[in-house]
Specification:
Mean pLDDT: 96
Distance between the termini: 29 Å
Number of strands: 5
Low-confidence stretches: none
Helix content: 55-70%
Number of domains: 2
Strand order of the largest sheet: 1-4-5
CATH class of the largest domain: Alpha Beta
Radius of gyration: 16 Å
Structural class: mainly alpha
Number of helices: 10
CATH superfamily of the largest domain: 5'-nuclease
Shape: globular
Strand content: 5-15%
CATH architecture of the largest domain: 3-Layer(aba) Sandwich
Order of helices and strands: EHHEHHEHHEHEHHH
CATH topology of the largest domain: Rossmann fold
Length: 168
């Protein structure tokens, strides 16, 4: 199961590259929690086109919403309030189910590590896209430019080097 947080989905939707997530993880479906869905729905209600695209994908079944059990919902309150509801739900969902979490938050990755959950951040995704041959390095550079422009994302020089370093 590939569980996605709002930040990754919205970033890739804003730059018209959401399909690359399905291609990279070789899946027909991504999963989100109810909290992530509520965040996306809020943006869709505010008129954001990227969020409307994501809610359409939920309606079409390409993005599935996982519902936590009552016990899992209680467990979300054991995680810090500095994490958003969707982030807490995503971590708890994967503590009981196998899969990976797509989130760009370093603190989410930290908590995932504590629970043995694999967390993949946007720089990891961008690197994997060209390494797996799904897009060229030049296309990744265009994606980065679009992410900077449309999602106000910042990349340090060190992060850019990590994305593009050849290890072969």
């Amino acid at each position: 199961m590939i569980v996605a947080d709002t930040d990754v989905l919205s970033a890739f939707a804003k730059v018209g590259a959401i399909q690359l997530l399905f291609d990279l993880f070789r899946t027909d479906n991504l999963t989100i929690t109810e909290g992530v869905y509520k965040e996306i729905q809020y943006s869709a209600d505010a008129g954001h086109a990227f969020a409307k695209e994501l809610t359409s994908m939920v309606d079409a079944g390409k993005i599935r919403v996982v519902h936590l059990t009552a016990e899992e919902k209680k467990e979300t309150y054991t995680l810090p309030d500095t994490l958003g509801a969707g982030e807490r739900e995503s971590i708890v969902a994967l503590r009981r189910r196998s899969g990976i979490l797509l989130s760009n938050e370093s603190r989410v990755k930290h908590y995932c590590g504590q629970f043995g959950i694999t967390c993949v951040r946007i720089p990891d995704i961008l690197r994997a896209l060209w390494q797996e041959g799904l897009v060229s390095k030049e296309e990744v550079m265009r994606l980065i430019s679009d992410l900077k422009d449309k999602d106000r994302m910042r990349f340090t020089e060190r992060t850019l080097q990590a994305i593009f370093i050849d290890t072969a």
